[in-house]
Amino acid sequence: MPLVKLSPILLFAATLLLAGCDVSINDEPDRELIRHNAAQMLMVGFRGKTVEEAETIVADIRELGIGGVILFDRDVSLGSDRNIANPVQLQTLVADLQEIAGDSLLVGIDQEGGYVNRLKPDYGFPPTHSAQYFGTLNQRLVTRAEADQTASLLKELGINLNFAPVVDLNINPDSPAIGRWERSYSANPGVVVTQAGEVIRAHHRQGVATAIKHFPGHGSATGDSHDGFTDVTDTWQPVELEPYERLINLQLPQVVMTAHVYNAQLDPDYPATLSSLVMTDLLRGQLGFEGMIISDDMQMRAIRDEYGLKTALEKSINAGVDMLIFGNNLQYEANIAHHAVDLIETLVLDGRISQQRLQDAADRVCQLKQSMDLACQVPAPNDEQPSEE
Fold first, then answer.
1. Residues 6+ apart with CB under 8 A from 170
2. Residue 20: its pLDDT value, please?
3. How far apart are CA 117 and CA 206, in angstroms?
4. Which residue blocks in the chain are alpha helix, DSSP H?
5. 28 inside domain
6. E strand or H helix at 117
7. Rounded to an integer, what is the distance from CA 4 to the centroid of its chain?
8. Which residues are CB-neighbours of 331 under 8 A, at least 6 positions away?
9. Which of 81-90, 130-139, 350-359, 371-380 has the lowest mean pLDDT?
10. Which residue has the higher pLDDT, 29 or 70?
């Protein structure tokens, strides 16, 4: 079993096991392990362009050991800038956060290109084109050239997870979340697979992970899950699964991002992010995906307004989501990481989430980190103390 590089942060003295990510779980609650795994499942947004300005996220890293951070150029709540000023500033910010974390953070960004583009020319970054632009051209070498540029830039900046490419089919060109912003390559699944495959491979060549999105398909929606409950029951088509199935069969996706859409064709009760029928039975069971499942922003109104944090955490984790994004941008909550860890711990202690489900999720986060040579801490359960030999 491969050794993992240990972070100096949150060392648990005699409870660290220098081994891979698989740890057996006993029947007694191990609260330290529960909190550690819960924190590893969180990717959190923050305010500030330097670690001095970002005291809250620094505390989340040091005190909790959160699994990752997500970067934004604009602060929606304040209507101002947020994490990004220029290439040198951003590279320094990411490096400083990784130093605090002991090189253990997943650092995520939405760098799709076109309208959804956090690294804008205004900040000194190269211009980009939309997915629709590349899908219309459908020339692999053209797509590959810009994807190589994007992946190289992310690598240089220290950003190791891009929430791209979008593989939603452009079924509704006026969709307020997808089509209207040219985020889909095409309504043709073959074009989507070809284009997305080039983007994923380009990132892989640089050691940067990608997350295909938004499962099980957001392209037919007439509403936007940022703004509230989004029902695609009457518009969603089974063909929307084809890009996922084909890319998974090619063993390309490392991460799949969920959609907050409700689809009674797949689950009559819950939106996809909260649905075990969609995440476990369909994505893992039927399509055979074995990588990490990450949620879309849990503070979007489709989840926030309809459920509440405790219920959303319980349902999404039990559904099979391994990492949860709290962008802290649509709605800012300075203590969201501590609040989420406290609630997950309570849900485990109350028997509403099993310790094994939590461990499985943290293991997948760890496995993704290991694939990029990031540090991954693995506390041992109480009854499996490391040998002194």
1. 132, 135, 178, 179, 184, 185, 186, 187, 219
2. 42
3. 19
4. 31-40, 55-59, 87-101, 131-137, 140-157, 189-205, 242-249, 276, 301-304, 309-319, 336-349, 355-371
5. yes
6. strand 116-117
7. 22
8. 77, 299, 304
9. 371-380
10. 70
Residue type, 68: G
d(CA 129, CA 304): 32
What's the CA gap between 121 and 314, in Å, rounded?
41
* 384, pLDDT greater than 90: no
Q: Which residues contact 18 (CB under 8 A, 6 or more apart)?
A: 3, 4, 6, 378, 386
Number of separate domains in the chain: 1
| Range(s) of the domain holding residue 200 | 13-371
Q: CA-to-CA distance for 274 and 17, rounded, in angstroms?
A: 32
Q: Answer whether residue 216 is part of any domain.
A: yes
Assess contact for 202 and 153: CB atoms under 8 A.
no
Which are the catalytic amino acids? 226, 296
* Structure letter (DSSP) for residue 387: P
Q: Is residue 379 part of a domain?
A: no
**In which region does residue 25 sit, left (phi positive, over 0), alpha (psi from -120 to 50) or beta (all else)?**
beta
- Using one digit for the tens of pLDDT, what is the confidence trace for 260-319? 999 999 999 999 999 999 999 999 999 999 999 999 999 988 787 878 899 999 999 999
Asked whether residue 134 is assigned to any structural domain, the reply reads yes
Give residue 88's Cα distance to chain centre: 25
Cβ atoms within 10 Å, residue 26: 12
Position 382 scores a pLDDT of: 57
CATH assignment at residue 73: 3.20.20.300
Cα separation, 111 vs 109, whole angstroms? 6
Amino acid letter, 234? D
Q: Can you give the pTM of this predicted structure?
A: 0.90
76 contact partners, CB below 8 Å, separation of at least 6: 329, 330
Q: Give the model confidence (pLDDT) of 86-102 as tens digits.
A: 999 999 999 999 999 99
Distance of alpha carbon 206 from alpha carbon 222, whole angstroms = 36
With beta carbons less than 8 A apart as the criterion, state whether 269 and 232 touch: no
Taking only the tens place, the pLDDT of each residue in 202-234 is 999 999 999 999 999 999 988 555 545 679 999
